[in-house]
């Protein structure tokens, strides 16, 4: 991705914050570049200097969220109890982070990914990176070599990614059974992590 599109640049990050809600409210097809430029308080011409297309904005949003995920996993791997910290971080993502403005945005991104190959590829890269983070934590927590961890637990990692991703696109409307569904997702994630933890060879 070109440097001008990276979320690390302060102005780009400000723009992404400004247009995030517009994308969530109007959708990929409904939000025009004019709408997004207006949300960012910029002229259309200046806006294009940062983001030449709506797809580029979505890719930058994904990259920024992946950067935040990386920070979470760095906190996990350096903790005294990585598996417990991993459970805490995943619970936060399921219970808190996806019960706010993240739901409509990620629901829209998930829909776009099905019809725009470049967005699908960006989502795929994010999932691959999260899988790699999980396998690194599994290896660190169990004492198994990374290659052996991947052989034995790549499906576990993929399953956790799938559960967290699915929770991200569930509307937080507090419908009947919503709390029970969230609790079931977390129980399933914890049971999956329990299977990995039982392979601890360090003791």
From TrEMBL:
Q: Which InterPro entries match?
A: Homeodomain-like_sf (IPR009057), HTH-type_TetR-like_transc_reg (IPR050109), HTH_TetR (IPR001647)
PROSITE patterns per the UniProt record, alphabetical: HTH_TETR_2 (PS50977)
Pfam families per record: TetR_N (PF00440)
Identify a single GO molecular function assigned to this protein.
Answer: DNA-binding transcription factor activity
- Residue ranges of the HTH tetR-type domain? 9-69
Q: Which domain of life is it from?
A: Bacteria
In which residue ranges does the UniProt entry place its DNA-binding region annotation? Answer: 32-51
Keywords annotated in UniProt = DNA-binding, Transcription, Transcription regulation
Q: What is this protein called?
A: TetR/AcrR family transcriptional regulator
Source species = Cereibacter changlensis JA139
């Amino acid at each position: 991705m070109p440097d001008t599109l990276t979320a690390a640049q302060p102005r780009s990050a400000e723009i992404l914050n400004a247009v995030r809600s517009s994308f969530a409210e109007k959708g990929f097809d409904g939000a025009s570049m004019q709408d997004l430029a207006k949300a960012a308080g910029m002229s259309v011409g200046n806006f294009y200097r940062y983001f030449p297309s709506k797809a580029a904005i979505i890719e930058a949003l994904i990259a920024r969220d992946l950067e935040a995920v990386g920070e979470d996993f760095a906190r996990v791997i350096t903790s005294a109890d990585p598996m417990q910290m991993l459970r805490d971080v995943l619970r936060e993502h399921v219970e808190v982070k996806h019960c706010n403005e993240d739901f409509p945005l990620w629901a829209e991104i998930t829909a776009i990914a099905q019809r725009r190959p470049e967005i699908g590829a960006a989502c795929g890269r994010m999932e691959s990176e999260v899988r790699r983070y999980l396998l690194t934590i599994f290896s660190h927590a169990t004492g198994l070599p990374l290659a052996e961890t991947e052989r034995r637990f790549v499906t576990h990692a993929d399953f956790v990614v799938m559960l967290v991703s699915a929770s991200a696109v569930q509307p937080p409307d507090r419908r009947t059974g919503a709390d029970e569904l969230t609790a079931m997702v977390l129980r399933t994630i914890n049971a999956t992590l329990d299977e990995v933890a039982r392979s601890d060879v360090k003791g």
